[in-house]
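thought: user wants a sequence for this fold. calling inverse folding tool.
action: design(structure=
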């Protein structure tokens, strides 16, 4: 017999709710009508706040921003699967997850306005801060998950990463540790097809990102990331498995970044309008609306109330963020060390003296 390479089959992408709002009821995750409404309202709030932040940036009221447009179902569906005690490790494109977890969103705004105090997550909310270095958060999440397992805590850690992050060493180290130590960690990969201007086809020769989990000894799922119910179902099962000692799961959410990479990018320079148009047809919010309408849970009056509520929350978020007094310039010396070293103490004194002179 000739030598045979190791092979495995890639399943079809998992979907419950299709582009037209047609639902495979047998696969639907258990949800009350209130939960359904909450999911829809989180999706709408996420999209509206995201749009508002883009406008604020254009007006010079916010710094560079990474939009989540089109990726809301991946974010809301996955975060909805977590319990309050579970941990969440974002990267920088998770507005829907932050909303779902209950982060006061003026903090998110503050962060993108360039104020690090936006990273001060309120006590009791088990969410880490935004990670700009691509991939590092995978190690933080896996480390925390390993610690939870050692302590016998029945909690899970969910970490977000992009398709681009799967090329980082940090990602592979985290996956290896997660597999070997059966860490209760869930990798939620937002495969939005692009890493700035690099398309997925140049990111990896693998057919899917989900299959990378196989090499590390655990399961990877290929899921329609624009189907909030499919993401929720797979993420919920992963969280249950993690808490029961079953170890990690990798979930590839196939979605699309409808916007530019950030406000500093122009996606029109590297992708075609046709590609964007094709993905518009797979919008993650439209299909939930259609589904709810058939169920008698959506009509124009409800829509109006959802939009009004979101607008009000957004106005409050913006007002609160902009009303936050500027940070004191000498703040930058205060939080890195427990005891400030002499050279920094000297610099701080110099800054303070300068500020006094300027006053
Ligand atoms: C370690 C590191 N290398 C490079 C960058 C610059 N950078 C920022 S985002 C990005 C692409 C990330 O792509 P992906 O992981 O697919 O996430 P997406 O932005 O598409 O959500 C790169 C290369 C960075 N922030 N950190
Ligand atoms: Mg990407």
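)
observation: tool returned 359 residues.
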């Amino acid at each position: 017999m000739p030598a045979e390479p190791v092979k495995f089959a890639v399943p079809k992408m998992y979907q419950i709710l299709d582009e037209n709002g047609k639902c495979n009821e047998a696969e639907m995750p258990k949800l009350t009508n209130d939960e359904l409404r909450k999911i829809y309202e989180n999706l709408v709030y996420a999209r509206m706040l995201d749009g508002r932040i883009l406008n604020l940036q254009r007006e010079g009221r916010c710094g560079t921003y990474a939009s989540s447009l089109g990726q809301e179902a991946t974010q809301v569906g996955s975060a909805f699967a977590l319990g309050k005690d579970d941990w969440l490790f974002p990267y920088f494109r998770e507005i829907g997850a932050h909303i779902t977890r209950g982060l006061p969103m003026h903090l998110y705004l503050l962060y993108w306005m360039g104020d690090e105090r936006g990273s001060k997550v309120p006590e009791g909310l088990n969410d880490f801060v935004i990670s700009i270095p691509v991939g590092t958060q995978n190690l933080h999440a896996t480390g925390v998950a390993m610690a939870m397992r050692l302590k016998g805590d029945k909690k899970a850690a969910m970490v977000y990463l992009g398709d681009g992050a799967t090329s980082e060493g940090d990602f592979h180290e985290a996956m290896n540790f997660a597999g070997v130590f059966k860490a209760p960690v869930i990798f939620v990969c937002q495969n939005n097809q692009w890493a700035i201007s690099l398309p997925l086809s140049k990111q990896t020769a693998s057919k899917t990102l989900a299959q990378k989990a196989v090499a590390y000894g655990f399961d990877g799922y290929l899921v329609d990331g624009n189907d909030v119910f499919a993401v929720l179902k797979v993420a919920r099962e992963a969280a249950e498995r993690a808490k029961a000692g079953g170890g990690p799961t990798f979930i590839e959410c196939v979605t699309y970044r409808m916007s530019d990479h950030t406000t500093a990018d122009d996606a029109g320079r590297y992708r075609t309008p046709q590609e964007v148009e094709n993905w518009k047809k797979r919008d993650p919010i439209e299909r939930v609306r259609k589904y709810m309408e058939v169920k008698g849970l959506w009509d124009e009056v409800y829509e109006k109330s959802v939009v009004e509520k979101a607008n009000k929350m957004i106005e409050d978020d913006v007002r609160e963020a902009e009303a936050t007094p500027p940070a004191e310039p000498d703040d930058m010396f205060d939080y890195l060390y427990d005891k400030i070293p002499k050279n920094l103490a000297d610099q701080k004194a110099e800054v303070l003296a300068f500020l006094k002179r300027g006053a």
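thought: summarizing for user.
answer: Here is the designed sequence. The chain has a mean pLDDT of 97.
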